[in-house]
Amino acid sequence: MASQPERIRVILGTDNRVIKDLLLFQLRNNNYEVALARSGRDIETKIEKRLFDAVILDVLSPSMGGVEMISTLKQLSATIPVIVVSSLIKGTRDDFQTEVMDAGADGIHITPFKFIDIHEELSRLAVAGGAFIQERTPTKKCPDCGKTLSKLARRCFFCGHHFTEVAEDLEALSFAEEDKGKLIEVVKKRFAAGKFTLPALPSIVVKVKDLLKNPNTNVLEIATLVKGEQTISTKLLALANSVLFGAIAQFTDVIQAITRLGLNNVESLVVAIAQRGLYDIKFRSLETAIQSLWKHAVASALACRSIAVQLNRPDPENYFLIGLIHDIGSVLALQIIADIHQKNLFPFDVDSKDVPTTIFNTHEEFGGVMLLEWNFDPLLAKAVRYHHRGLPEELNIPADQRTHIETMRDIIKYADCVAHLADYSYSEFEPTENVNEILEQLCKRLGVPSSPAQKLIQTIPETARTLEQLL
What we know:
By secondary structure, this protein is mainly α. Helices cover about 55% and strands about 5% of the residues. The protein has 19 helices and 7 strands.
């Protein structure tokens, strides 16, 4: 059996959640082995044992030992590259940079920084200092721009090219101590190491989205496109002829169907029809879970649209789509779990609480990544990424964008509550959470009465059942 290729081993020391999320994803996606440091002392211990090749340090994180930690690390190992990252500046930018570099740092990056700059600096410092050898890392060429990338890269960060395949032979990554030996650790590792390919957005969805970006697109152009997709055109006709869209006369032509549905509805409905296939899983023991996720998606879509109308949002159909895809990360997590079980990679009971717990603790991150991969609005991806925990205060984004994301997040959470109380839920809330209280708080925050929500809880099951059958 061939030996596993060695990877660049990096310690990441930061309390900043945004920097941590960004660098963890980018480093692991590009085949670095990453360990999160709990404190400055933790970094010292790892360096003393010579377990790692480089340090990325946020000296303004309270637990990381400050600027003095740089000189401490250099005393332990003069050749270890120490790259400083920070989102905050004490005093002026120049003074801060001077202080850090005088302490012995090999580089400094202040947000907003680009990962490619850190990647290139690590490579340069590695060759100069001899801490590791670049050739240890398996590489591939981007077919579009010709740049050399890690064999694990899913996307070229020089030109944006997407790779449909990633390496399957790379060793597992390290994760938080509390995840060790659990199903969630295995799921996260397979996702981060690229050992489970992200589902591609169906080509028909991409084409429809591209057409609808043009304000001059007409019904005939959309109809011509979807006529070539038998399943899509048939189901659009069924939807147009349903009571959900106020059908009186029955249509037999796709042009008539799209006219009745309206162009604003077509995109969300095409996505709904196309992504229905993602909810098919060839593993009987998990069929109930995947069907529960689909039912929850449909009920959430209806609830999102309802509250968007109540709030007089200009794009309620878009909120139908948001509700439909907000838990798409759960589907990916469940597919990875099924793959792990079928390949006997990790022993677990499919009926245990480990499955819903793993899904709950991974689906936000997975969903945010999937929406970015599918080229959805980055603000929507952030709303999905933080729809349970809320947007971190330290996330450095303009105030108007933060308000928009938080509104989307509140609407998603409102829909989650309604779907849960209508018995259309799967692992959305902790057992100790009072969902009625959460819903009341959301209504107050959104500035709407709670009575329509209570009515929706009663009526949504019948509407959802009808929509499920049509999709």
